[in-house]
Specification:
By secondary structure, this protein is an alpha/beta fold. It folds into two domains: 85 residues; 105 residues, 2-Layer Sandwich (Nucleotidyltransferase, domain 5), CATH 3.30.420. Helix content is 50%, strand content 16%. The protein has a five-stranded mixed β-sheet, with helices on both faces. Helix 2 packs across helix 8, helix 3 packs across helix 4 and helix 5 crosses helix 6. It is globular.
């Protein structure tokens, strides 16, 4: 679904909706914080409305971002981190290249070979085949990579060295800082959508979005161009 079709269904000023959604995914704020901040600016918006905007808009904004995402390197550092959904721990699979740019992300209910393989399939489909993937000592991630290599003529080189994965573990922290005020997600669908928005804003801040012209733009300005 295009951003135009999504916005036509939401009868509210565009700048207000985009501001609220960007703040929500960019900063460690709760929905109640956003409601109060908008009230101080003379805008009456219920916190549940902000949540509804985020769920409606972020999938379209993520698709728009993917069309402008810069390519990543071919040496990946992959790891998973824990995210609480409806009181239970789920697993956010993530990878960065050696420069620290985000390769891809995927929320899964389980931490096993199937989940790891699905992550690698998605990451490769959207970013190309890496030369090397560095993982920790996880047997599930190793099994997932072996399953990918079994279907390839040229194998992806696998390295298991925890200290080499410090760069992705540090990158996890930026995501975890943002989701902490949310106190967990209500359901898997909401978690997946909101995490995608957080990841998109995180990539924009890291300079991973190609602008249409050579004009220097702030992270906020780049986010807003996703609706153009």
């Amino acid at each position: 679904m295009t951003t135009d079709k999504v916005f036509k269904r939401l009868h509210y000023p565009l700048d207000v909706m985009l501001t609220c959604v960007r703040w929500y995914v960019a900063y460690p704020l709760s929905l109640r914080h956003l409601e109060e901040m908008m009230a101080e600016r003379g805008v009456s918006v219920d916190h549940s409305t902000v949540h509804r905007w985020a769920i409606k808009l972020l999938p379209a904004l993520e698709k728009a971002f993917q069309r402008h995402k810069r390519g990543v390197g071919r040496s990946w550092r992959m790891d998973e981190t824990y995210v609480k959904v409806n009181g239970e721990w789920k697993y956010l699979y993530r990878a960065v290249d050696k420069a620290g740019d985000t390769v891809d992300f995927l929320l899964r209910a389980r931490r096993d070979k199937v989940a790891a393989r699905r992550y690698f399939e998605k990451a490769i489909d959207e970013n190309g085949v890496p030369e090397t993937v560095t993982i920790d000592k996880s047997g599930a991630n190793l099994a997932g990579l072996h399953a990918i290599n079994a279907e390839r003529e040229t194998s992806i080189k696998i390295r298991q060295a925890k200290y080499l994965n410090n760069i992705v573990e540090q990158d996890h922290r930026a995501i975890k800082r943002r989701i902490r005020p949310m106190l967990g997600f209500k359901n898997f669908r909401c978690a997946r959508i909101l995490l995608s928005g957080i990841e998109v804003m995180h990539m924009i801040k890291k300079g991973q979005m190609m602008c249409r012209d050579s004009t220097a733009r702030t992270a906020a300005e780049q986010f807003y161009t996703l609706v153009a």
